[in-house]
Amino acid sequence: MHVKDKVCVVTGGASGIGLALCMRFAKEGAHVVLSDLRQDASESHAEAIGAFAVAADVGREEDIEHLVAATIERFGRIDLFVSNAGIAIDGGIETPTAGWQKIININLMAEVWAAKYAIPHMLEQGSGWLLNVASAAGLLVIPDTVSYTVTKHAAVGFSEWLATMYGDKNIGVTLLCPAAVLTPILAGKEDTPEGQDAITTEQLADMVIEGLADERFLINTHPWVLEKFAVKARDYEEYIRGLRADQAAADAKAAAVV
User: Fold this and answer.
1) Based on the structure, what is the number of domains in the chain?
2) 148, 166, 236, 239: which is the annotated catalytic residue?
């Protein structure tokens, strides 16, 4: 999958990973549809790179439907749909139900709706690609945010299902599972374990371009993620013991600071 001359839709395109991807796709010669929550932010960033701006709240099915329709109306096709927009909510089982519903809609259902409305067009045109942005939290566990961990795990499972069902129908699927990336979500956590070995959004965009060109299902940004994932696959008991040990160490460190 090479993005030159392709129609590429990116949600959450006005900041962070999404903006970096929009900029890189435009540099590669793609027709970029930059979508974000607000129309003014979308238009401001889109104008700078010659992209087409379409506002969308990805937590609303009708907004995803409109985004796909607006792209088809403008360009006549969708070659790559990047479901990038996402949120994080810290907390454990005390997380309010409203918070759960919001993060489920944005981190998971937005990808479901993107596939629901984009895939029929891709099948009709004979090709297409979905790039779903999950997280290392979709392969492992992030202890301080259960809702982020759970929704990103679900996004991984959904992407695997899509690849299984549509891979033989000329619909490609790539799953991006970044660990620490210097984005607004990481703000204030650069010196914490979550921020270790953080890469820039430009470095991530390079990895995405390379991964799409190689038509890889999984794009990983940090080797240690797959090392831990391999432990999980080989010995689940060892993996859980390791998580508990890491959390105990973190709790002891926090108690010492207090």
Assistant:
1) 2
2) 148
In this structure, which long-range contacts are made by residues 39-45, counting pairs with CB atoms below 8 Å and at least 24 apart in sequence? 41/14, 41/15, 42/13, 42/14, 44/14, 45/13, 45/14, 45/19
In DSSP terms, 171 is beta-bridged to: 128
pLDDT tens, 47-59?
999 999 999 999 9
Residues 208 and 245 occupy one common structural domain: no
Tell me the C-alpha distance between 197 and 187, whole Å.
14
Are 142 and 196 in contact, with CB atoms under 8 Å apart? no
Tokens of 222: 């940090």
Q: Is 239 a catalytic residue?
A: no
Whether the model clears a pTM of 0.90, i.e. scores above it, the answer is: yes
Give the DSSP per-residue string, 173-208.
EEEEE--SB-SGGGTT-TTSGGGTT-B-HHHHHHHH
Instruction: Say if CB 33 and CB 52 are below 8 A apart.
Output: yes
